[in-house]
Amino acid sequence: MMHRRRDLLGILHRRGVDGIIPLTVVGKKHERIEVVMVHTFALHDLKLALDVESGALHILDDAAFTAVSLLAAGKSKQEAADELKAEYGAQTAAQVLAEIAAAESQDLLFSEPRQVDLTTDGAVKALCLHLAHDCNLRCKYCFAGTGNYGGVRGLMPSGVAKAAVDFLLAAGESRRHMEIDFFGGEPLLNFTVLKETVAYGRQRAEAQGKNFKFTVTTNAYNVPEEVRDYLNREEISIVLSLDGRMEVHDRMRVTAAGRGSWDVVLQNCKKIVAGRGGDNYYLRGTYTRHNLDFCRDVEEMVGHGFRLLSLEPAVLSPAAEEALQEEDLPVIFAEYEKLAALLWEWEEAGRKVYFFHFELDLHRGPCAKKRLLGCGAGSSYLAVTPDGKLYPCHQFAGEAEFCVGNVTDGITAPEIRQRFTAVDSAAKEECAACFARYYCGGGCHAAAWYQNHDLAKPYALGCKLHRKRVECGLYLQAKRMLAKTGR
After folding, report:
1. Single pTM value for the model
2. Strand partners, 217
3. 238: pLDDT confidence band, cut at 50, 70 and 90?
4. CA 280 → CA 214, 240, 303, distances in Å?
5. 367 pLDDT more than 60
C-alpha cells in the first residue's frame, strides 16, 4: 500500500515537473474573489484530486485521498494528521502528509491564485454567418423558432456574405488565422452563396497573408452528391445533427410535414464522413428529458461507425415538456459516469471514440486567458444575420437590444460588446468557487440571459451538468496516463 501510494503520487509529480499535465496557472487582473481550491472526487476505480489553479491532476490511494479531502474541506494539517493516524497509523499519516507538502512546494497542490492580464486587443476572430433563416426541418427543441428566429424566412444575399468577409478581415486586425461558421436555419439551403463566400474569402485572405477556417453546421437532411463532394473536397469542417436512436431522433427532428428524418439523415451522414476519411467532422446530438438514457444513443452512433461525437443537453424553458429538470440530475450524472466507463472500455479494446465534452486537453490546451474568457461571444466572436446585422452570437440573432452593428458600417454599439467582455468567468460570483472554472469560461451567455435575464448569472442546471462532464473527462485523462505508464 505504501509503495503503491508513493508510485502513484510520484507519477503525477513528475508529470507536473515535466510540463505534461498542469494547465497554465491562471488568475485575474481585475478584482475577484480568490479561492485556493482542490477538488476531490471518486469515479469508478479511481480517487482523484484536481488542483484548480495549477491544473495538476492527482491520482490517490485511500489514505492520500482522505488527507487531501480533509485539507480541501478546511481542516488544519494537525487535524488531518490526527484523523489519518487513527485510521491508517502514524507511519502512513506521516508519509502521506510529506508527499502532500512536496506537491505544495512544487505548486501542484493547494496552489495560490495567480494573476493574468485578461485585457484583449478587441479583434474579432470569428463570424457565424446565418446563410439561411429558413429550414427544411421543424425540430421541436429549436432555439431558432424552426429556423426563422421569430422573423421572416429568407436567405443571405451574396453581397452581404462578401461584406461580412471584408468586415472580418478588417476587424481581425493583425490576426492571421480566422474562422467563418456557416449556420442557419439550414445553411445548405443557400449552397450557392456558401461556395461564393468560400472562394471570395480565400482570395481576399490570401492577398492579405491571412487564412480562413470554414465550418458548416447542417441537419444533413438534403445533401446532394454535388454538395457533399464540394464540402469534402474543400476540406470544410462539418457538424452533422443526429440524435442517436431512430425513435429519439424522429420524436424531435421532423420535416415540415411532420415526418421523421432519421433514415435520410443517417445515410447522408455516413456518406459525408466516408468521403472525408472519417475525420474533420462532429456528429452532434441533443438529449432531452425523453432520452435520459442517452448512452444508448451514443452506442447507436458508434454502432454506425461514427467516432467523433457530441451530445448536448437541450436548453429550454423550464415549462417545456422536453426540458431537463433538477430532479433529473441524479439520473443524468449516473448516465455520464456510465458513458465514461463505456468510452474507456472501447478505448482499451482499440476503438477510441472522442466525446467532445470529455476531451479535456490537460497539457496542450488553450492558454489561461482563453480558459477564462470562454467562447468569446460578443467580443472576439459575432453572428451575422441575412440582413447583415451583427449580434453577440447566433442565439442572440434578431434581439434588437443586442445588435452591435452591421457588416457595412462595422461596430456601431461598442457598449453592447463591453457588456459581454465584462462577464468572463473571473467576474462571476458563482464561478469563483467552482472547480471547473478553467474548463468553462463562465458558461453560455445566451443560456444565462434566457434562463436568468442576467449575463452575469450562469445557468445553474447547465453548470451542474458541466461539472459532472469535467469530472468524467478528468477520469478518462487519468486512465490514459496510467495506461501509458503501465500502471
Report:
1. 0.90
2. 239
3. very high
4. 11, 11, 19
5. no
Count CB atoms within 10 A of the CB of residue 315: 21
157-179 pLDDT, tens per residue? 999 999 999 999 999 998 999 99
The Cα 229–Cα 224 span in angstroms is 9
Using pLDDT thresholds of 50, 70 and 90, give the confidence band for residue 150: confident
Side chain identity at residue 143, one-letter code: F
Measured distance CA(322)–CA(288) in Å, rounded: 5
Instruction: List the grid coordinates of 333.
Output: 450524472
* C-alpha to C-alpha distance for 201 and 165, rounded to whole angstroms: 6
Tell me if 323 sits within 8 A of 316, measured CB to CB: yes
HEC profile for the chain?
CHHHHHHHHHHHHHHHHCCCCCCCCCCCCCCCCCCCCEEEEEECCEEEEEECCCCCEEEECHHHHHHHHHHHCCCCHHHHHHHHHHHHCHHHHHHHHHHHHHHHHCCCCCCCCCCCCCCCCCCCCEEEEECEECCCECCCCCCCCCCCCCCCCEECCHHHHHHHHHHHHHHCCCCCEEEEEEECCCHHHHHHHHHHHHHHHHHHHHHCCCEEEEEEEECCCCCCHHHHHHHHHCCCEEEEECCCCHHHHHHHCEECCCCECHHHHHHHHHHHHHHCCCCCEEEEEEECHHHCCCHHHHHHHHHCCCCEEEEEECCCCCCCCCCCCHHHHHHHHHHHHHHHHHHHHHHHCCCCCEEHHHCCCCCCCCCHHHHHHCCCECCCEEEECCCCEEECCHHHCCCHHHCCEECCCEECCHHHHHHHHCCCHHHCHHHHCCCCHHHCCCCCHHHHHHHHCCCCCCCHHHHHHHHHHHHHHHHHHHHHHHHHCCC
Dihedral (CA of 394, 399, 403, 407) sign: positive
What share of the chain in percent tops pLDDT 70? 88
Residue 374 CB partners (closer than 8 Å, separation 6+): 424, 425, 440, 441, 442, 443
Give the torsion through C-alpha atoms of 330, 336, 340, 346, to 10 deg: 120
> What distance separates the 2 farthest-apart alpha carbons in the chain?
76
Would you say 373 and 144 are in contact if contact means Cβ atoms under 8 Å apart? no
- Strands 237-241 and 211-218, by their bridges, are parallel
For residue 429, what pLDDT is reported?
A: 82
